[in-house]
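Example record for the data management plan.
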Amino acid sequence: MADYKKNIFNIEGTIFAKPSRKITSKKDGKDYEFKSIILELKREYKGKTFVDFPEFQLGYGVSDDGFDVGDYVLVTFALTGKNAGSFHKTELKAIYIKHPDLQQGNDTRDVGGNPYPKKDKLPPAPEPVEEEYSDDLPF
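Corresponding structural encoding:
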């Protein structure tokens, strides 16, 4: 079995499209939505430009809100695969999306992608200080 940390990759590219597939379950009749993003990746080889369009399925808790078509983003993803009888299917599962030029903020954890946000602990209140006043005025 592969080590989980060795199955995490990063890639930068421009968002080309944000398709969404809606499927109705045969068992219970509920509607499900599967979102993904397609990146445009350009590379040069021997003076020629090649363009690839990989599609990344959005993992649980990853939201594409706040990212528009044409935005340059960094996608952290994992490879997943399924054996479907006569063929094998490999998927790219996006687990984190952010703008690569920003150190913090404006990423999937900030835009609503983190279903369980961490709460900051407040520092303890300062101790009251009693001072002697030599002034006769009450204010």
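Summary line stored alongside the record: The chain has a mean pLDDT of 79.
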